[in-house]
Amino acid sequence: MMIQSRQESVVRVLYEFPPGVDPKRQGQNLALGQTVGSLVPGMAAQIASYQGTLESSDVLSDGRGQAWVRYPSHNVSGDLGSLLVMILGKYSLAGPAKIRRLELPSDYGARGRWGFDGIARLARVSGRPLFMGIFKPALGLSPDDLARILREVGEAGLDLIKDDEILPDTPASTALSRIRACRPILEEIERTQKRTMLYAVTLSGRADKLLDSARRLREAGANAYLLSPFAYGLSVMEALASHPDTNLPIFAHPAMAGALGGSPDYGFDMSVLLGTLMVHGGADAVLYPTSAGNLPISADTESDIRNTLLHGGLAPVPSAGVHPGALPRFLPDRNTRIILNAGTGIMDHPQGPAAGVKAFHEAWARWQNQESFSPDALPEGPLKAAVLKWGT
Amino acid sequence: MMIQSRQESVVRVLYEFPPGVDPKRQGQNLALGQTVGSLVPGMAAQIASYQGTLESSDVLSDGRGQAWVRYPSHNVSGDLGSLLVMILGKYSLAGPAKIRRLELPSDYGARGRWGFDGIARLARVSGRPLFMGIFKPALGLSPDDLARILREVGEAGLDLIKDDEILPDTPASTALSRIRACRPILEEIERTQKRTMLYAVTLSGRADKLLDSARRLREAGANAYLLSPFAYGLSVMEALASHPDTNLPIFAHPAMAGALGGSPDYGFDMSVLLGTLMVHGGADAVLYPTSAGNLPISADTESDIRNTLLHGGLAPVPSAGVHPGALPRFLPDRNTRIILNAGTGIMDHPQGPAAGVKAFHEAWARWQNQESFSPDALPEGPLKAAVLKWGT
3-state DSSP helix/strand/coil percent for chain B, to nearest 5? Predict the structure, then answer.
C-alpha cells in the first residue's frame, strides 16, 4: 500500500478493465487522451513534457486487464479536483475502467492538521482506542433531546459523538442550534472530567455557505466537523482542511462512496476513495464500513482502507457492525490508533446508552488483560448484556 | 421527463435494482434508513414527519426491480450535497442501486442565471445554434498560441471557445494568464464584429481558492466559466451560480460522470447526472457525449439529457462526434436552442480552424434551406471538405 510515488514529480495510476478490453491500448489512450489530447503535428516538442506514459500492462488470469499509467504532476494544480479530471475525467465516459491504486507525491493535495494523534491529544486519551457514538434517531431530535443524550453518554465516558450524516441544516435543526444546545454540556464535561469530549457536527449547504458556516460553528464552540466529501466535493474538504478559521478535526463520512466504488468495473477501488483520497484530501478521521457488519465489504478491502489511513497518520473509524463485544476484531496487530464508532451499538444497548459506553470501556479492559469475551466468562454488567444481544 | 415534483414539498426518486433484489424491501429500507434511521420506541410521533415513504415497487420483465421513494424536502437543506446524502448516501454502500429518475421541487437548489437564452443574448445570436470550439492541444499552448488561435477562429465567426477541461491552473498556464492573453482579442472581436465572443476558462483548485479565482477572472475580463462539477463538487457549482461576483455563464463539463453513471447497477442515470442535477445545480450550459461519436451512449440517453436541459432552460452542448456535416443530426424537431461543441471538428479541418468554423455556418445555411449534405450536391468549400473527411 504505497501512497508516496517513487518519483515525487509524477502521479501513478493502476487502471483495471473487464475481460475483453485491451489494457495496453486503453493505457495508451489514457496516457495520451488525458494529457495532451492528441498528437499535434509540429507541436510535438512543445507538448512532450505534458504527455503521460504507459508504464506497463498485463492481463490477469481471470482475463481482467491492468495498466499502470504515469502522469506528470505539473499537468495538475496540486488539488484533487484537477487530479480527478486528469486520471479519470472524460475517459470515464469511454467505457469501463476502475482505478485500483493511486500514488501521489507525498505533499500532494491538503493534509489533515490533526490526524489520529491530534484527535487523541484533544480528547486527552492515550494508549487506547477512542469510542464514538452517534445521536439517534437521525432526524427529529430537539435541542433538549440532544443535550439529554449528550450528558448521559458523556458522563459514562464517551470520547466523541457525531450527528448522523443525514442531518444537515434543516428548518427544525440547524448545526448552529445543535452546537448551542450542546456547548454547555461539553463545557460541563470539560470541567468535571478534565477532558474534551468531541462533537462532530454535520456541515451542509453550497460550498461558500458551508465554509462560512464551518467558521461560525467553530466560533460558537464546535470542536469537530463531519463532512461527506463525496456528496459535497473533495475540493470542499481540501478548503476546510487548509483555512486557519476552520482548524478543527475533520471526520469524513463515506456517503456516496458506493456510487463511485461499488461497481466492479467503474470508478475507484474503495481503498483509493476512503484511503488515498482522504489522506491527500485533508481528512483527519475517516468512517468506513466494516466486514463485520451487514454491508458488502470484504475483509481485504477493509484492511486496505485501514492501513492506508494509518500509514497517512489519519484515524481509521470503522463503522457499521461495531458493538462492544466486537472490540477485539478491530485491534489486529494490537494497533490501538483507531476510533470505534457505534450507533446502535451504544444507543440501543439493553440497559441504555450509558451502559453502551461502559460496555466499550469494559471490553477494552478485558482485551488488555487478554480475558475471554465468551458470555459464560463475563461478569454481569454492560459488556455481558451487549454480548448477549450482539455477540462478539 | 418530469423535473418538477407533483407536490412541491417532496423529493421523489426512482431506484432500480438488479434481478434478485427485492425492490419493495429495498424501497422500504431506503424510506426508513435514509431518513429517521430506525424506528425509535416512544419517539414515533416526533419523527413521523421526517420519514420517507415507499410509493410503489415493481419487477420489470427483465427481472430488474424498481421502487419509487418519496422523501420530505424539509429533511434536506435546499442544496445538492444534502440531497445526495439523503437519496443515496450511506445506502450506496449497501449494495447495487441506481437512481433512474429524480424529481425535485422546482425551486430546489441553485438555478443558472443565464441558460441558453442568456448565453445567446450575450453572444448576440438569435434563431440559430451557437458554435463552440476548443483550444487544442489541451496542454502546452503558450499565451501567444492562444491569442493566435483565438483570432483565427474569432475572425471566422466562432461564437464561443473553451479550454480543455484537463487544463487547470498549471505552473506554465494559469487561467488568469490565459484570460490576459485572450482579452485583447476578445475586445477586438467585440469592436470589429459588434458581438461578444465567449471564452469559457477552466476553473480549478480547492473550493475556496476556486471561488476566489472565479471572481478575479471575471474582474480580469473572463466572460464564461468551465467547471467539472463531478470532480470539484456540485456544491461548488451551486456557489458559483449564486454569488453576485461570479455572475457569468457556467459551462458544466461531464468529466467523472462515467464513474457515477457508467455502471448499469450503481450510481445515477446519465439523464439525472447531466440533466436534473445540472438544472438544479446552477449550470447554464452542459456538455454531454453524443451517440454520433465513439463514446458508448445510447440515442435515448442523449435525448433524455437534451430534453431535460431544454425543459430547464439550459443550453444543451452536445460534444464528441460533432463536426460540420453532422449539424442536421443535432437539430431534431427543428430545435435550434443548442450549442454545438466541436474540438477536432473545427481545429482539425483539412483547410484549418477558420475553415472549420466557416463549414459550420455553411452547414447551418444549407440546413435552413433544406439542401442536401451529400458530397455530390455540395459546392467546393469548407463544408464539402469537412463532409469528405468526417461524413454527415
Answer: 45, 20, 35
Q: Is A139 on the interface with B (CB under 8 A)?
A: yes
Answer yes or no: do B132 and B61 share one domain: no
Chain B residues lying within 8 Å of A74, measured CB to CB: 170-172
Compare CB distances from A93 to B40, B211, B258 and report the shortest one's residue.
B258
Orientation of helix B382-390 relative to helix B353-368, angle to 10°? 100
Q: Which of A33, A34, A29 is nearest to A11 (CA)?
A: A34
* Residue A228 in contact with partner chain B when CB distance is under 8 A: yes
Do B181 and B85 lie in a common domain? no
Element (H, E) at B323: none
Answer yes or no: are the C-beta atoms of B354 and B153 closer than 8 Å: yes
CA quadruple B179, B181, B185, B191: dihedral sign = positive
- Pairing, β A198-202 against β A224-227: parallel
CATH number of the domain enclosing A207: 3.20.20.110
Residue B85 lies in a domain: yes
Find the catalytic residue in A90, A98, A358, A389.
A90
**A positions 94-133 inside 8 Å of B (CB):** 94-96, 110
pTM reported for the whole predicted model: 0.96
Q: For chain B, how far is it from start to end, CA to CA, in angstroms?
A: 29
Q: Is B166 helix (H, G, I), strand (E, B) or coil?
A: coil
> Mean pLDDT by 10-residue block, N- to C-terminus, for chain B (392 residues)?
53 98 97 85 82 97 98 96 98 97 96 98 97 92 91 98 95 94 97 97 98 98 98 98 98 98 97 98 97 90 97 96 95 94 95 98 97 96 98 94
| Interface contact B210-A81, CB threshold 8 A | yes
Active site residue A90: yes
Counting the structural domains of chain A, the total is 2
- Residues B171, B90, single domain; the answer is no
Looking at residue B39, its pLDDT comes to 66
Residue indicated by cell numbers 429517521: B36
DSSP for B230-278 reads HHH-HHHHHHHHH-GGG-S-EEEP-TTHHHHHSSSSEEE-HHIIIIIHH
Q: Which of A243, A247, A268, A250 is nearest to A258 (CA)?
A: A268
Q: Do A139 and B75 touch (CB under 8 A)?
A: yes
Task: Return phi, psi of residue A26, to 5°.
Answer: -70, -35
CATH code: domain of residue A55: 3.30.70.150
Do B96 and B166 fall within a single domain? no
Check whether A3 has a pLDDT greater than 70: no
A157, three cell numbers: 465516558
pLDDT at residue A4, as a whole number? 43
Interchain contact, A236 vs B166, CB within 8 Å:
no
Q: Is residue A202 part of a domain?
A: yes
Among B93, B280, B291, pick the best mutation site for testing chain A contact (most A Cβ within 10 A): B93
Question: Which pLDDT value is given to residue B2?
Answer: 41
Q: Which three cell numbers stand for residue A372?
A: 475471554
Element spanning B172, H or E: none
Indicate whether A51 and A182 sit together in one domain.
Answer: no
Residue B109 falls inside a structural domain: no
What are the catalytic residues of B? 90
Contact between residue A386 and residue A326 where contact means Cβ atoms under 8 Å apart: no
d(CA A341, CA B36): 19
Task: Give residue B251's pLDDT.
Answer: 98
User: Do B83 and B217 reside in the same domain of the chain?
Assistant: no
Q: In the prediction, which pLDDT does B145 show?
A: 92
Structural domain boundaries, residue B52: 10-37+46-103
B193 touches chain A (CB under 8 A): no
The shortest CB-CB distance from B85 to any of A80, A228, A296 is to A228
Report the alpha-carbon distance of residue A182 to residue A171 in Å, rounded: 18
Q: Which one of A83, A103, A123 terminates a domain? A: A103
CA B270 to chain centre: 11
Give the phi and the psi of residue A166 in degrees, each rounded to 5.
-85, 10
Position A224 confidence tier, pLDDT thresholds 50, 70, 90? very high
